[in-house]
Amino acid sequence: MSTNSVLSTVDRWFSGLSLHWKIVLTLVVVVALLELGVGRLAPRSRVFRAWKALVEGVGAAWTAVLLSIIYVLSVGPVSLAMRLFAKDPLDRKLDPEPSFWRAHDANPLGADAASRHQF
């Protein structure tokens, strides 16, 4: 396959994309070229330091956004379910007592077995 046929195939494919995907693909290619080109050719230059600071800032912002979304979508429904079913795993509404030790049934296998097989 010649270079011209490869380029014409890529051109036909690219021209068939919507404007949104053309912009996204162009940005991805530009970012990749900047990262590879500037990072390899001039890793100590001002351009690379500025580029790195920009990318790290965007990464920090998106990390906060994504972790917030994941937290709300995972902890929120669990909290709502616990409130709806009136579950309190910490037993925060215990009556005041001299000791909050809970009485429990002794292990039927004995103390030695209980220490070896705690769970």
Would you kindly provide a written description of the structure presented here, covering whatever features stand out?
With 119 residues, this protein is an all-alpha fold. It folds into two domains: 1-41; 45-89. Helix content is 68%, strand content 0%. The chain has helices spanning 3-15, 19-41, 46-84, 111-116. The N and C termini lie far apart (65 Å). The mean pLDDT is 86.
SSE arrangement:
Blueprint: H1 3-15, H2 19-41, H3 46-84, H4 111-116
Shape: elongated
Order of helices and strands: HHHH
> What integer value in Å does the Rg equal?
30 Å
Look at the structure and give the mean pLDDT: 86
Count all strands and give the number: 0
Number of helices: 4
First CA to last CA: what distance?
Answer: 65 Å
* Spans where pLDDT lies below 50 across 5 or more residues: none
- How much of the polypeptide forms β-strand, as a percent range? under 5%
Structural class: mainly alpha
Largest sheet: none
- Provide the domain count: 2
Helix content: 55-70%
